[in-house]
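P.,

For your records, the input lines for the assembly:
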Amino acid sequence: MTASSALPYQRLHVELDARRYPIHVGPGLLDDPDMLVPYLAGQQVMIVTSETVAPLYLERLKHALSGDGRDVREIVLPDGEHTKTLASVERIWDALLAAGFNRRCTLVALGGGVIGDMAGFAAACYQRGVAFVQVPTTLLSQVDSSVGGKTGVNHPRGKNMLGAFWQPRAVVIDTRTLTTLPARELSAGLAEVIKYGLIQDVDFIAWLEARMSALRALDADALTDAILRSCAIKAEIVAADETEQGQRALLNLGHTFGHAIESHQGYGNWLHGEAVGAGMLMAAALSQRLGWLEPDEVLRVEALIAHAGLPVTAPASMSGDDFLSIMRLDKKNIDARLRLVLLSRLGDACIHDATPSDMLDALLTDFPRR
Amino acid sequence: MTASSALPYQRLHVELDARRYPIHVGPGLLDDPDMLVPYLAGQQVMIVTSETVAPLYLERLKHALSGDGRDVREIVLPDGEHTKTLASVERIWDALLAAGFNRRCTLVALGGGVIGDMAGFAAACYQRGVAFVQVPTTLLSQVDSSVGGKTGVNHPRGKNMLGAFWQPRAVVIDTRTLTTLPARELSAGLAEVIKYGLIQDVDFIAWLEARMSALRALDADALTDAILRSCAIKAEIVAADETEQGQRALLNLGHTFGHAIESHQGYGNWLHGEAVGAGMLMAAALSQRLGWLEPDEVLRVEALIAHAGLPVTAPASMSGDDFLSIMRLDKKNIDARLRLVLLSRLGDACIHDATPSDMLDALLTDFPRR
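Structure tokens returned:
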């Protein structure tokens, strides 16, 4: 037993029948073989990481995974949403084949959501599917993309157009990795944390209002609690609806508006979480127009999003028509109807595909710009 | 109801829990909307076919799928195993995105195994998975690759290295498409038919010995019976072991030897079925050396393979060492052990990873060449 295995950590499980898997959360887990080695399929391990994360954590993770004759290799990819392409995933496959790795190998994603999405997709399709472990190092990937099994890449014609549902064997969240995360990216991750409160847990909204300053100051206990609560809500929703036929769509609160902002402004100029922050406020404002939220509830949402360091306005360069034309292409639409996730009340979301078009037009025109 | 729906056909189901799907077998099914339309997910349909098959059957299938306002399009790909690449699958994805197809579209594979494998992989990963229907037009794809959900493409470093398990919603087998199939490809398909007898059904071996001439003369009833019996055996094995953890590996009888021949000779010079034909005889001969088959049983296997028009010798240019070096790379090996599917008796196969290396060397050296 290593020293680090005596560290405190917490655990929850994602319940997916035969593919039940644990999420471990705590400080220092990256260095703990006991958190990682039990989830490897065999002796062949490929760490997939990025140029930013590799200098910080690659050698430590490699050290934790090595031993017992294991063949641990790495592939280091460039950073950024624009690298989330099929060509990057092909580089992972080429590396696996060049290493002679067989169907009992394991891919370990070390990095943010882009790395996790690409490594997961590579694992899903290498020899028709191999083992996969997530070690997410950004708050966004810890509370969102590392849970739920969505993997994939972008295509010039759209985000996440190619991919697979592929579950990890384990998610290992070392909260200390957040100490090296830029403040702007911490805020982007908080957008998704706030989302879980808005869609499912009004008590969590109140907890976040009280603890937001502690979270932004990287208080260890606050972070562990927020990550665990977020993962628990997401895990519950995913377990009920693995392939997004119904309830899972609620996780897209703010995302249809947010994707429109990201797409119009160019991916990477607005961070995903920033666009979701503004998008959630747009969803709340539309919910108010439908008579589902009170004005002071929308102000409460706005204050929480602002307190997290996120934008509460849309880009000045984006017209209502810009929003509409991009939103109509969203792959969450079924046939011709525009489906939106809205708030039926604080802490409760719904899917709505019958918003009057003049009401939506007015919201998109009137929503504050900056 | 159309005239063609009054035609006789037979049906069996592949039992995969929520993904149970039917296989329809009979003459003229290609023209019958009732065989096809109930399995479409929505209004958007993309037929994936090849340059050889398109002039023969594309317009007829399009006609059967059209109507009710459906948007039916096609993508026609070049023929041949060497086109089974990620680049070809990217062409399918580009066509789907250019058409604006959403996650409720359906891909329909019209052609042989290469088309089915690529269209299935494209369906598995387009927007993380869309509906898929198989209309196989070669005997090989009708009895083998269209059943079981294996999809994928080759990589310069190996066959079928990238792919997914993805089940069709239905398999529609029109036996009349075999009238346009070259005799050599019919024989290649018969290799897999014989395989089902050898691994699981000694009575089917006797039936094939009696009906082989009728099958090669395209006797309609004989073809329907042979296809149904083959699909039933494969469906039963696949249902018990969808992701190839155990019993499903028995379907690889002759394939480890056969892949070595294909790989050494260049894919396409030996047809897959031809290589499997010779490979099954090599497996039978090795089973005899292990004391599991009598010499006259091996002669019976040899006569049946020869009667199907398949080779019963290995390539003269291939040494025993050539076989060994390629077989050791086979992805069916787990860690370092060479796993072979052999015959414990006629009509019963087993997985064996403890063949004495001098016995295997002798078989590979002594097996007849031509």
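Two observations worth noting. The mean pLDDT of chain B is 92. Residues 183-366 of chain B form a domain with the Dehydroquinate synthase-like, alpha domain fold (CATH 1.20.1090.10).

Regards
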